[in-house]
Write a structure and sequence with these properties.
Blueprint (H helix, E strand, L loop, with lengths): L1 E6 L3 E8 L2 E9 L5 H13 L9 E6 L1 H7 L6 E6 L15 E4 L2 E2 L5 E3 L3 H13 L4 E6 L7 H10 L5 E4 L9 H13 L1 H17 L6 E4 L5 E3 H5 L8 H10 L8 E7 L4 E7 L2 E2 L7 E2 L2 E2 L7 E4 L7 E4 L2 E4 L17 H7 L8 H15 L3 H28 L3 E2 L4 E2 L6 E7 L3 H12 L2 E4 L6 H8 L4 E8 L4 E4 L4 E4 L6 H18 L11 E12 L2 E13 L10 H5 L4
Parallel strand pairs: 1-4, 4-11, 5-6, 5-9, 9-10, 13-23, 23-24
Antiparallel strand pairs: 1-2, 2-3, 7-8, 11-12, 13-14, 14-15, 14-18, 16-17, 19-20, 21-22, 25-26, 25-29, 26-27, 28-29
């Protein structure tokens, strides 16, 4: 049996899967000030009376780090950045505890200027005086040579709770994104660790001493232990769960639009013939452009519980959520209350919904039913408009799927897959407004938890080899190898695959479950000096792409039996 758990902005969903079907399911109100108890309650509901030895795996998807970033609730974090000649790193400052220091490495990994030890010591003293416990360290070309980052970390010593090094967050070159990624990893470290320590303790107390995995932004999983040192990987895991929860039901013949309509937000994604899209550089959140490997998703502040109000004579829906719908005791009218007034939902206090919408109807000068219809239609149109903008943005650039780069491809969704609590109530109207075929994903209200449960591990390795300098380096893996002049591109691919296999095992997977590994970047340049070739510059990136666990192919049909 497998447990899948998704902590959403409104509800925490938990499923227990076994025998190719959902055996149990739970939906618990998310209390952001006490997420641990939400998770514990959900786990208790699905595991009650189940022998612990029958449960083999738990996968968690969480909005904890995402919410901390979007709400600006990040821990004070110190940043030390060395760049050398070129653009001023102050342009990428992350706050008041951001320091630029001397020392530089060039694009091939050669030291140009050493680190000034006294400079780092002075900054460390300032951090301590300010009570800073988390520090990020970035050297511009650390992915070619991490020497300076190691030196700065050594000087900082053991006086800080956590030190994040730039070369370990990604093997890709992009200085501004690396700074943002290191900062976010350091800033959410304590939040992430406290939460998952609590979850782990809770599972152990229930006798569930089993592998615990975390869903990453790229739709794959990593072990809980590994995630503690890379908390940024959990950013955007909620939208990734939406994608994974829809994969079983997407067409492999046409492009699909995925809409996860929750209580707080609507998460959107596109599948190209059943294949998720990937952000080529990394995900973006809260204004931070990162190097975090992520599926291509977008979120808008519109859901079933979004606050509805009149602004300048017009209906405004969201982006804030003030609480549940008034039908469930909430403080303000919502699109869900409009569904009650329209008779689409009946299990709640219809009179409360009507009382909430009546002032809106009066201000608009229309009937209560017409006001409810306007709110519902405006919600559907806003979602489709945002989806159209997302599709246009995708088509304005090369299309990257988790498999390949599709040059010149234009995304044209022919179907919409809807999931999330209010999904069935939105489906027909979305179909009428869009002209597309709309399907409600089976088990729509816990589909994210199912997607998390069935997601397999993912990882990637970036390798850089310079035969003139005689080095091959995979920065994220802390791997350096001395190589000879005759080192070839095929040698580099074989070496990268070996490192990928090792990393696969480190994220908590097994050798037997290793899917096919694939090359996603393969570049080689000759280095010329005095009209002769002096060496080769080889860049290789390999991956295990996102996908679902093997052996669960029959679950799609059985999920359809639910309602």
């Amino acid at each position: 049996m497998i447990i899948g758990l998704d902590v959403g902005g409104t509800h925490t969903d938990v499923v227990l899967i076994g025998d190719d079907k959902v055996l149990r399911r739970a939906k618990v109100l998310t209390i952001h000030s006490n997420l641990f108890d939400c998770v514990r309650e959900g786990l208790e509901q699905v595991t009650r009376d189940i022998p612990p030895h029958k449960i083999h795996r738990v996968v968690l998807s969480t909005t904890l780090t995402t919410n901390a970033i979007t709400e600006g609730k990040l821990a004070q974090t110190g940043m030390i950045v060395s760049a050398g000649p070129g653009i001023d790193p102050l342009f990428f400052s992350t706050g008041s505890h951001y320091y630029c220091v001397s020392g530089s490495i060039d694009h091939r990994g050669r030291e140009i200027q050493p680190i000034d030890r006294s400079e780092i010591e002075r900054i460390a003293s300032r951090f301590k005086a300010a009570g800073i416990r988390r520090v990020g360290v970035v050297s511009k070309f650390s992915v070619r040579n991490p020497k300076h980052e190691f030196e700065m970390a050594k000087i900082l010593g053991d006086s800080f709770e956590n030190i994040i090094l730039g070369h370990r967050v990604s093997g890709n070159l992009n200085f501004p994104r690396r700074i943002a990624t290191v900062y976010l990893n350091a800033a959410v470290y304590s939040i992430h660790k406290q939460f998952f320590d609590a979850v782990q303790d809770s599972l152990i107390k229930k006798g569930l001493n089993i592998p615990i995995f975390v869903l990453k932004a790229d739709g794959g999983t990593m072990s809980l232990e590994a995630s503690v040192d890379a908390p940024g990987q959990t950013i955007l895991s909620g939208p990734a769960a939406s994608v994974m929860g829809s994969l079983l039901f997407a067409s492999d013949a046409v492009d699909s639009l995925v809409l996860d309509i929750g209580g707080t937000t609507t998460d959107m994604a596109v599948l190209v013939r059943g294949i998720p899209l990937l952000e080529p550089l990394g995900g973006e959140i809260g204004g931070y452009r990162t190097l975090i490997r992520s599926l291509r998703t977008e979120s808008i502040g519109l859901g079933g519980d979004s606050a509805v109000r009149i602004v300048n004579g017009e209906i405004r829906i969201g982006p804030d959520r003030l609480g549940s719908a008034m039908a469930y005791g909430g403080p303000s009218p919502t699109p869900t209350d409009a569904l009650f007034v329209l008779g689409k939902v009946i299990e709640g206090n219809v009179e409360a919904s009507a009382r909430g919408l009546q002032p809106i109807a009066e201000r608009l000068g229309i009937s209560l039913e017409d006001a409810a219809g306007r709110i519902f239609d405006d919600s559907c149109r806003a979602i489709l408009t945002a989806a159209g903008k997302m599709t246009a943005a995708i088509n304005s650039k090369p299309v990257y799927t988790v498999r390949e780069l599709l040059l010149g491809y234009k995304v044209q969704p022919k179907e919409i897959l809807v999931l999330g609590g209010p999904a069935p109530h939105f489906a027909d109207r979305l179909a009428q407004l869009s002209g597309l075929h709309v399907s409600v994903v089976p088990q729509w209200d816990v589909a994210n938890a199912i997607g998390a449960a069935l997601a397999r591990g993912t990882c990637e390795v970036a390798l850089f080899a310079d035969t003139e300098r005689g080095t091959a380096i995979a920065p994220e893996e802390d791997f350096v190898l001395q190589i000879k002049k005759d080192f070839t591109r095929q040698n580099a691919i074989d070496l990268a695959f070996g490192l990928l296999r090792k990393k696969w095992l480190q994220v908590g997977a097994s050798e037997e479950s290793l899917p096919e590994m694939e090359v996603v970047e393969d570049l080689q340049f000759n280095m010329i000096r005095d009209f002769s070739t002096t060496g080769k510059n080889i860049r290789i990136k390999v991956q295990v792409k996102p996908g679902l666990l093997p052996g669960y192919g029959g679950i799609a049909g059985k999920l359809c039996d639910r309602r």
